[in-house]
Known about the structure:
Blueprint: H1 2-46, E1 57-61, H2 62-67, E2 90-96, E3 99-105, E4 107-108, E5 111-112, E6 121-124, E7 129-133, E8 143-148, E9 152-153, E10 160-162, E11 171-180, E12 186-196, H3 199-207, E13 220-223, E14 226-233, E15 239-243, E16 248-251, H4 255-264, H5 268-273, H6 309-313, E17 330-335, E18 340-344, E19 357-361, E20 365-368, E21 371-374, E22 391-392, E23 413-416, E24 419-426, E25 432-436, E26 444-445, H7 464-471, E27 481-482, E28 484-491, E29 502-508, E30 510-511, E31 532-538, E32 544-547, E33 565-566, E34 570-573, E35 579-581, E36 590-592
Parallel strand pairs: 7-12, 13-22, 23-36, 28-31
Antiparallel strand pairs: 1-2, 2-3, 4-5, 6-8, 8-9, 10-11, 11-12, 13-14, 14-15, 15-21, 16-20, 17-18, 18-19, 23-24, 24-25, 25-34, 26-33, 27-34, 28-29, 30-34, 31-32, 35-36
Amino acid sequence: MLKKIKGLIFLAVLAAAAWFLVVEPLITFHNNEKKMEAAARRYFDLNNSQLPSGERVRTLELQKLYDAGLLDRDFYIPLTKKTCSNSNSWVKVRRENGEYKYYVYLECGYYKSSVDHEGPVIKLYGDEETTLGRGEKYKELGVKSVVDNKDGKLKIEDVIIKGNVNSKKAGTYKVRYIAYDNLSNKTEVVRTIKVVRKISSEMKDLLENDKNFKGDPNNFIMLSNMMFRVYGLDEKDDVIVVSDIDISNVNYSKLDKWLDYFYDHLNEKTKQIIVEKKYCNMKFADNHSIKLSTCNSYTEKRKIYIPSANEVLSGVDEEEYNFMRPSTISWIANSKDNKEAYVTRDTFYPPLDEETFVPYSVNDNYGVRPMFTIKGNTLIKSGDGTYANPYSIGDNKKAKGGTPLNERETGEYVNIDDVLFRIIEVDEDGTTKVISDGSIEGLDSEANSNSDKIVYNPKDKYSVAYRIINTVPEYLDTSLFIKHNVEVPVYKKEFIYGEETKVKKYNLLLAAPDTYEMFSAQTNNAFTAGSYWLRNESQKDRTAMAVGEVGVPTNMYEISHYDRFGFRVVGHLKKGTVIVSGKGTDDEPYIVK
Length: 593
């Protein structure tokens, strides 16, 4: 009997709990739904003119009923002190068969009315997020389908589309697609269109119907902290760029080897946007036969090359300006035969005044302006293409004060005692290898005037090496530099990249540049850089390497006892060197300590 009584008590408690936790909340919830409907009816009794006509639907939110004083107390989520949703709860009224029908939707946490409250599902053609190059025409792809869970398929033409895209101005635009079901439940889908400065679109807009730039346009672009110029677009609308200046003086016969060295000094973001492609390298029997024509010979696919005669010739405008012809003497891709290849220059001196291309030995050293192709969808982050404000893809985040210099990149500029230097690379030992951007003002020297051999030896007081070590510190504070191993390549006769007969090693604070290292050929201020000695050494009598006033190397001619050249220097900055200020550019170089 006791067991039976206990069982009945348990059931009674269970029933009471069920009533308290389930039944009573449901009753309260449904009573609140009825109160909402009654309040809505009173509202329209008082505001009869607001009743919808035809098939229209009028919606009253719960908050509206509170504001009208038609509900005497708030609705709460059952068993809590939290109020039901005022904005998501509503009463809709619609005229059906001559009478007004009321639909109540109340949202109280877990408890929600069973009336249709969901808008239709809108599916779009295309992606909901897309990018558009500035200047490209925006094409509205439209709506694929509209389906409601109660009403089924709805008319696509009833979807309201709002929003405009100004493709001439970079920015983020939104196009809104709005649809209602038969009970006026609303759905809104947004397509986001980012109008970006896609480099191919920018160049197309500037070029109009041309494929490449001509004359002397504002087509400057900074990549890997080096100034390039946009040559034009290829057949896939990828963008071809060429270095604005010579990077080094190199043998034509060793171009491929040196271009690999150059590629290694590009930063990773630049490498990621390079497109491998074939480049024109057709041969010409003589310089008079070189004309703008369809190329009939190409390299294998590659990442880096140099301009061909076709690119140079197609860069000229009606006034004979041509940014593809340098002030120095630079190699082009075309050769005459296995022994000679062609160079170009803006003006050759007599008797070559009228020539655009001249053949020289493939083992001579002349300037190299690397050319490569970048993806057309690369985004321009800033710049207007002028020299002062070149296009930038944002491939280099500028350093903050206190940043170690050895965390920076090839090509950035550093001010040391008011002398401008440029970073060549960071060595494994943490020192930063830099090269002065021009000759040290006020310094020049003959080379070994008392000897038939011109040697680079810091222990020989007649050597350029000795004079750099002993005179440059009088003009330059060298406290941030540290002695470092310097290799002096020695050649049998001709200076040929990678074909040294031996290498002399010295531990030096400063040295002349090697003709084959980064930025040793030309500076951004080519006409004010001054002439300068190079450290490459030949066993041939009175033979050395130097660069003349306009960036042209001596190229193996016999150095007289009276020839004088200035000093550009290469050195290593201490591992602990840090940046104080600056942006690493030539006009705002890093200040270091």
